[in-house]
């Protein structure tokens, strides 16, 4: 396996499957099986989970809700998703710990960096819920932050498209995919990989990002094994 310790970012929307809202248990089970394959190979897996399938603070604010309160709701949504993913991983036979950036002690461990690393060393999957614990941030920023903190080799952004394109492939038939691209070119070309805060944090810390289609069977395994799947963003 090319990577020994990875940070997998899954958006909340990924958990919806074909639904319009919430969580699809079958999709969760599929993800858990994909994760198990790499855990069985000795890869240390940390996951940051989004909350967009349940609530986004920006969406609430656009309807007149207080932004900070909305973001708190969004962060709680990520904890809900984290619990669901933890359940699915345990059903698949993977030892899993959920750590939350916001204190919710009866439900999840608090985020403690050293403890998270210890879990990883013992072969446990660590799911980070609660984002960064701060409003006005996203779970992409949380993913980069946690990846740096635990010294992950790479961030794997699992999406429903198979990489970064010259334009949105769901809208433009002429869009072409990059196999590799530099951080600088992503910014120059105005491509959307992550929000700017998350993206520049990754760039400054020289942490590569691979965007790939998580919904295709075996893709996670292939990426971690070092196959050229998706798009790799490098320095
Ligand atoms: N959120 C936040 N701070 C964080 C991470 C998330 O306030 O550090 C809130 C924010 O309202 C966000 C919501 O949680 O809209 C869900 O996260 P995100 O939109 O990143 O989820 P995804 O798009 O990955 O499903």
């Amino acid at each position: 396996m090319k990577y020994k310790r990875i940070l997998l970012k899954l958006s909340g929307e990924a958990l919806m499957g074909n639904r319009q809202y919430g969580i699809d248990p079958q999709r969760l089970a599929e993800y858990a099986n994909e994760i198990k394959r790499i855990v069985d190979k000795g890869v240390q897996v940390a996951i940051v989970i989004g909350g967009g399938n349940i609530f986004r603070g920006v969406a609430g604010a656009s309807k007149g809700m207080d932004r900070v309160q909305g973001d708190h709701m969004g962060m709680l949504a990520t904890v809900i998703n984290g619990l669901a993913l933890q359940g699915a991983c345990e059903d698949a036979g993977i030892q899993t710990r959920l750590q939350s950036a916001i204190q919710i002690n009866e439900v999840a461990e608090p985020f403690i960096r050293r403890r998270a690393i210890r879990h990883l060393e013992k072969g446990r999957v660590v799911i980070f819920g609660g984002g960064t614990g701060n409003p006005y941030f996203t779970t992409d920023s949380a993913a980069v932050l946690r990846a740096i903190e635990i010294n992950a080799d790479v961030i794997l952004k699992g999406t429903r498209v198979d990489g970064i394109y010259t334009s949105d492939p769901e809208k433009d038939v002429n869009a072409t995919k990059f196999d590799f691209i530099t951080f600088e070119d992503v910014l120059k070309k105005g491509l959307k990989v992550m929000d700017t805060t998350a993206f520049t944090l990754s760039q400054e810390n020289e942490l590569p990002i691979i965007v790939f289609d998580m919904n295709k069977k075996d893709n996670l395994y292939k990426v971690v094994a070092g196959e050229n799947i998706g798009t790799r963003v490098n320095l």
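The longest strand covers residues 5-10. The chain has eight helices and eleven strands.
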